Amino acid sequence: MPTLTPVDQPEFLTAVHYVAARIRESGWEPGFIIGIGRGGLTPAVYLSHATGVPMLSVDHSSHLPDFAAELLVKLAGMSGDHRLLFVDDINDSGSTIAHIKAALVEAGGILANVRFATLIDNIVSAERVDYRFRTIDRTANKDWFVFPWEQLSPVDKVLEDSAVVPERLA
Question: Phosphoribosyltransferase domain location, by residue (predicted)?
């Protein structure tokens, strides 16, 4: 059983403000923030409010084309004229970021206008993010981080979610 490590609301708010400050300091201004569902939706809403940048969303976790693949094609088309900041809760294996990048490129997207932000970034992930609040090393830290919105779920559901990719926490 994994160690469940809660991220409380004050830490979450600190993380959002920290990421917003790093974006401002970078001088790179996104035209849109895109929340990656499911875990990136709440951070994206808060980050949108903290930065004043409008928010869109894709639901990668649903595996439904109408809510992810088709929207990524539309976002690829927008990436020529707009800077897009994709937001997720954690960059763990990097598979979500890799999937989004590949889908954008396949649809003709301009990756030079795309960046990624997460609250937690695994430094041994296959993908890198541009903005993060904190880093972990999955070779040493196997905790399952339970964000405020996940804390509404029964513990058995949180454990079920953590087991989707068992090698991540092994």
Answer: 8-149
